[in-house]
Amino acid sequence: MNEQEGTEPGLPRGARLGVDVGMARIGLAASDPDGLVATPVETVPRVLAGGGGRGQAPRSAEGTTADVARIVAEAADRFAVVVYVGLPRHLSGKEGAATADARAFAGRLVAALEAAGEGAQVRLVDERMTTVSAHQALRTAGRKTKQHRSVIDQAAAVIILQSALDAERAKGERAGEVVEARTVHDTHE
C-alpha cells in the first residue's frame, strides 16, 4: 500500500459512501478516507409523491428532493470521492422495476452533486442478496427481527460499500459502472 495516498496505487484517497435505495428508506454508509472499513451512517426517509410514484416529491429551488439533498450533504461533509449506489438486479442478473428506480435515483444524485459543486463520482454496484445478508448478520448479532427495520437499510448499505471497497483493493480500480447525468433517463419524473 502506498503510504502517501493511503490506498492502492492509482486510487485517490477519500471517503466513499454506500447507498441502499429502498422504496420507503435509504440506507447510508461511509468509509474512512483510506477506504478500508464501511460503517453505518443513518437511514434516510425516501421521498414519495402524493400519487404514490417513487422519487416525485416536492423539490428544493435547485430541483433536489430531501433524500438526495441529505446524501449530497453527507458527501460534502466527508469529502467523498465516490458514492456507490446499490443496483438491485434479479438473481438471474436481469433488471426490473427496482433496478430502473435505483438507476433513476443515481442519475438525480449525480445531477445534485454537480449542482452543489461536489466532485464525487456516482457508481452503480450489484447488490444482489445484500438485504438477506444484512438480516442474517443482524440475527447472528442477536438482534430480534422486529428491531431490524430501523437498521436493516444501513446494514445493507454497509455490505454494498464494503463489497465495493474490497473490489477496489482486489482490482486496484473503482468498482461498478459510472453514472453520468446526461445518460440517465428518469422515468419517474
UniProtKB/TrEMBL annotation:
GO terms for molecular function: hydrolase activity, acting on ester bonds; nuclease activity. It is found in: Cytoplasm. InterPro entries: RNaseH-like_sf, YqgF, YqgF/RNaseH-like_dom, YqgF/RNaseH-like_dom_sf. Its EC number is 3.1.-.-. GO terms for cellular component: cytosol. Residues 14-134 form the YqgF/RNase H-like domain. GO terms for biological process: rRNA 5'-end processing. It comes from the Bacteria. PANTHER family: POLYNUCLEOTIDYL TRANSFERASE, RIBONUCLEASE H-LIKE SUPERFAMILY PROTEIN (PTHR33317). Belongs to the YqgF HJR family. Could be a nuclease involved in processing of the 5'-end of pre-16S rRNA. This is Putative pre-16S rRNA nuclease. The lineage of its organism: Bacteria, Bacillati, Actinomycetota, Actinomycetes, Micrococcales.
